[in-house]
Amino acid sequence: MNTISQLFNGLLGLGVEPKELTFLQISLRGIIVFVATLVMVRVSSKRSLAEKTAFDATLLVIVASVLARAINGSASFLPTLGAGFVLVLLHRFLAVAAYYSHGFGILIKGKAAVVVKNGKLQHKNMRINHISEHDLEEDMRLDAATEDLSKIKVARVERSGDISFIKAE
Fold this sequence. Notes:
Blueprint: H1 2-12, H2 23-43, H3 46-50, H4 54-72, H5 77-100, H6 102-109, E1 113-117, E2 120-121, H7 123-128, H8 133-144, E3 152-157, E4 163-167
Antiparallel strand pairs: 1-2, 1-3, 3-4
Helix pairs in contact: 2-4, 2-5, 4-5, 5-6
């Protein structure tokens, strides 16, 4: 068992200063982190990859940062991989809690805000969500295929930051 441990340590450069890691060691670390990340993605939800909310995007940024440290040797390899799994499991747990508690979901994911109602701009909600009239007009052209505000029954800034449109009948 000791021989296997020594081989593993040597191949991955465990306990070696980052600047002393070889191309092979960094490459092997990268392969292991890649496979571990695939497992993490499967443990996580498909939505976390879609970056639907700031909650989901935060997971991606932090996990990427943590796992990069495992590859470049600036943090201990195995504990860093473990931390990546812990973060993914935390995300999963919070997502389940948000599923069962609407209030908690609003707390961690935000809530939609109406920015157009019956063809009228809702300036307060636009200001709160940092949506300019130009931003709204652009999204109307791209997503609602119209430039006529009077044709919009409701437009909402969704939790993802996207603007959704329901046209008037």
